[in-house]
UniProtKB/TrEMBL annotation:
Record's protein name: ATP-sensitive inward rectifier potassium channel 12-like
Gene that encodes the chain: LOC113215682
Record-stated family: Belongs to the inward rectifier-type potassium channel (TC 1.A.2.1) family.
Principal subcellular localisation of the protein: membrane
Matching SUPFAM superfamilies: E set domains, Voltage-gated potassium channels
Inward rectifier potassium channel C-terminal domain sequence ranges: 185-353
Organism: Frankliniella occidentalis (Western flower thrips)
Record-linked PANTHER family: INWARD RECTIFIER POTASSIUM CHANNEL (PTHR11767), INWARDLY RECTIFYING POTASSIUM CHANNEL 2, ISOFORM D (PTHR11767:SF113)
Length: 378
């Protein structure tokens, strides 16, 4: 079910056709000039952003979600310990003001404000027990100290708010949509070969999970081939089909993404030397809804000139298992390619050669008829 046929090389009747014994000599270019890395990370670093830290602090929840786990855990620990420490100061000050620390003889029935809070250490333990609702029972506020009840209620509310933020951030980090993209695979190489009589750019995409993406959508843009004012960012979207001429993408099985290099394609004038020489980049975006969580996820990758093999096709990876009566996708073949007969010229030159070939067949017939008519008249 590979887009180029079952292990068959397409034959093109052209004097430019040549079997690739080896891949076209690839001059290594710097792979650093990418907008999107192979793993999907954006290769753009924002610099000189005004009020950057202030803006990040205003969106504190998303900032903590995007932080590394070690920084998030440090913030969690600090938020709890700082709150325990601050309320311990309040409890210690309240005990001092009420005279609980003084060794004086109390009247009959008179109770201290905080039972068994003798120093700052016991105040800190009482603060931690109250906020975490442990409640060992060794320290507690007495009925003779109503202000302690107010502070205890306030600390309980603050503790619940901190716990809610902590649980929410951990849950958001564990269910981030980009984690789902780790099971979406792109082929390491894109290939150019002849399919249905036309040069076609192809690459492969697959999903290793059984729960496929819902409403999956894939689009490809090419950067660095236009004549715009900023070639580094000017982009042109490529018309693509899937597994032949399908317009909609299904991730139930590995799909071959195809772009016909015709007269409407920005790659129409590109030959193998241009592919290896010009610093263009193919940006691929795959987006869909996670069937399990309903969240939208996106996976990205890119193909630079050194990632494109001219004269190759994708190795077929689907096979039918008669024993289990089902198709199987062999992901050991996911990144493999096969060398095939392919013209070493651009699609524009290939079409020109074909037109000349057609004219060269028709032209002698016309001449022979003219010569025959002239002989008869003579």
């Amino acid at each position: 079910m590979d887009g180029s046929g079952e292990g068959r090389a397409e034959d093109v009747s052209s004097p430019l056709t040549k079997k690739h014994k080896t891949a076209i000599s690839q001059r290594r270019h710097s792979n650093g000039r990418r907008l999107v890395g192979k793993a999907g990370e954006a290769q753009v670093l924002p610099l000189n952003v005004p009020n950057k830290h202030k803006r990040l602090a205003q969106d504190l929840f998303n900032t903590l979600v995007e932080c590394r786990w070690r920084y998030t855990l440090i913030v969690f620990l600090l938020s709890h310990f700082v709150s325990w420490f601050l309320f311990a100061l309040v409890w210690y000050a309240m005990a001092l003001a009420h005279g609980d620390m003084e060794e004086t003889v109390r009247e009959v029935g008179e109770l201290p404000c905080l039972i068994n809070v003798m120093d700052f250490t016991s105040a800190f333990i009482f603060s931690m027990e109250s906020q975490t609702t442990i409640g060992y029972g060794t320290a507690y506020p007495s009925r003779d100290c109503p202000q302690a009840v107010v502070v205890l209620c306030f600390q309980s509310v603050c503790g619940m708010i901190i716990e809610a933020f902590s649980v929410g951030i951990v849950f958001a980090k564990l269910t981030r949509p980009h984690l789902r993209s780790q099971t979406l695979l792109f082929g390491r190489r894109a290939v150019v070969a002849v399919r249905d009589g036309c040069l076609t750019l192809m690459f492969r995409v697959g999903d290793i999970r059984k729960s496929e993406l819902v409403s999956a959508r894939l689009w490809v843009v090419v950067r660095g081939v236009g004549d715009g004012e900023d070639p580094d960012t000017d982009q042109t979207e490529l018309a693509v089909t899937f597994n032949g001429n399908a317009k909609n993408l299904s991730m139930a099985w590995p799909a071959t993404v195809m772009h016909r290099i015709d007269d409407k394609s920005p790659l129409y004038r590109f030959d193998p030397r241009d592919v290896q020489r010009d610093p263009f980049e193919l940006l691929v975006f795959l987006e869909g809804t996670n069937q399990a969580t309903g969240q939208t996820t996106q996976a990205r990758t890119s193909y630079s000139q050194t990632d494109i093999l001219w004269g190759h096709k994708l190795y077929p990876m689907l096979r039918f298992n008669k024993k289990h009566d089902r198709y199987e996708a062999d992901y050991n073949r996911f990144h493999e390619t096969i060398e095939v007969d392919t013209p070493l010229c651009s699609a524009q030159d290939l079409n020109r050669v074909r037109r000349l070939s057609e004219l060269s067949v028709l032209h002698p017939i016309t001449e022979s008829r003219e010569e025959t008519s002239v002989d008869i008249e003579a």
